[in-house]
Amino acid sequence: MTYSAGGLVEASDYNGFAGGNGGGANVSGQLNTILGTGYGNAGYGQSSVANVSVAGQVTAAQWTTLVNGVNTVRKHQSGGGFSNLSTYIAGEVINATNDVSTNLTTAFTNRLTSAAAGPTFNQPNQTVNFTAPNDTNPFNGAFSRTAAFGSADQARYFFNAGGTVQLIVSSVTNGGGTARGSALGNVISLTSGKTIGAQDCSAITTPAPYSESVDLTTNSGYYPQTTANLTLYTVSGSVGVYTAQTASLLSKVSGTSGSNGDKGDTVTISVTCTSPSVGPAFNDSINITVNHNLRVIYPSTTYLANTWGSVTFG
Description:
11 strands; 20% helix; 2 domains; single chain; 29% strand; alpha+beta; 6 helices
């Protein structure tokens, strides 16, 4: 490649900047790795920029297409903090500048960064009822919700462009009115609101007197997960004689996989809870209703077209 500041842009330079589209690898410095299909945690699913004939000259229109692609990904990542790179008009000589090369490298580094979020959509409210008799036995409960994408690549585009998924526990109703039910409901409520992104999850603030034993933030999002449940967060606490009430938030990926480094088209988020044995039994029944839903925050479409579709809840 002959590309250098102040020199002329050759077709080989142009094609090096545009790059391929997918193909089983992420390549820093290539536009289509980020803008187009890409692979794994790179790729927004936008229209890729075609390569030019190595026997011809790079036209102003072709250069403008390439530069506008760079502007698109950098604007999505930085918003108003990025000033568009200049383009050319027909008849002007296209000179190489370091701006394209530098910004493509930055775009790859920041490929999972977005300047703004898109619309928020909440699943209709779901309920699960946990009951246990007035005895000394331990109680274990669980519930799950799923977020399914139209395809494995659409799941990639969603997370790569900044989309996130949360499980929200909106309320816990203690229908039995017991202290044990209230104690278990408290820890279940504390699992609410952890945000699952492409690579990472957000932390959860755990109030006293409760304590957390697990709170994964890095290497815990869509891409690090497997088909086995990953424990994202575990909280425990005691109320009076009701010791070590525990709730955990878990997540896994599954469904149909594609060929571009995805982890599947479905994300399942679960809550498990435990109320240890108590004794002697005295008003130790459990009758609580957990009201919950999945919340999806879609990527912004200010600079990108919606290539991720809509999430189907289950």
